[in-house]
Structure formats: C-alpha cells, structure tokens
Amino acid sequence: MINLQEFARRLSTLGADAFTSDDVVDLAIAADVRISADLEIDATLAQRLLDQISPPPPVTGAQITASQWPPPTSSRPAAPSVSFSSPGAVDGPADQPGRPRSSGPGRRGQRPGSRRTGR
Predict the structure, then answer these.
(1) How far, in Å, CA of 107 to CA of 14, rounded?
(2) How many CB atoms lie within 10 A of CB 69?
(3) With 0-12 CB in 10 A as exposed, 13-18 as middle and 19+ as buried, what is 14?
(4) Where is this region: Disordered (predicted)?
(5) DSSP letter assigned to residue 89
(6) What is the phi/psi pair of residue 5, to 5°?
C-alpha cells in the first residue's frame, strides 16, 4: 500500500502529465471513493483510480502499489507467449502430428522412381 502523495508521484513517472494530490482526489471523486491525504491506497483502490484515467496507463493497480517501483520490465513481455499460438500457425512439423506428409491430390498416382513389378 502507498499513500496519496506516492500514488501521485508514481502516476507522474508514467507519462508527460504531472499528477498532484489534488488530481488523485479528483480521480477518487470520479470513482465515487472518499479519499484523504493519510489514506493508504491498496491495489483495488488504485485500480479504481487508474480506471478513471484516459488513456489508461500501462500499469495495473497491483503494479503501481507494489513495493518495487517502477515495475520490472519482464512483467510486460514484448511479444506474446508461445502458448498463445493457434493450430495451423507456423509451428514445426512436430507440432502437427496428425498430418501425414505424403497426402495430397497430386501424389496418388505412380511417381518417377517408384517400385514397379515385372522388371
């Protein structure tokens, strides 16, 4: 949990806008939350306040109230995880065991070099 001034300071580090304690009070009024200078802000309250900001900041309530600030960059991956790839995406052949390699309309006849009987 962090206090009102620390919440405003952390918000200010996220973008070009400088937030003051009064700005945080305005966010609280917009979120129908009573807030005072000595009130500690937890992750749930922080998220309600962050939801009032447009465009939304790139952090969650839990990240902005965490003891480590700014949040570690590894918590925001630059690319989607491999686990989100869809079937049929460009994965290796080992990922698609149900497809036989020799199927297809043009391969059912005799191929050059195939075995022939009688020779």
Answers:
(1) 59
(2) 15
(3) middle
(4) 52-119
(5) S
(6) -65, -40
- Does an H or E element contain 5, and which? helix 4-12
Supply 38's token pair: 């000595």
Give per-residue pLDDT as tens, 41-55: 999 999 999 999 888
Residues 5 and 37: their CA atoms lie apart, in Å, by 8
Note the pTM of the prediction, 2 decimals. Answer: 0.57
Give 49's DSSP letter.
H
Nearest to 87 by CA among 76, 95, 77, 79: 95
Contact yes or no for 4/21 (Cβ under 8 A): yes
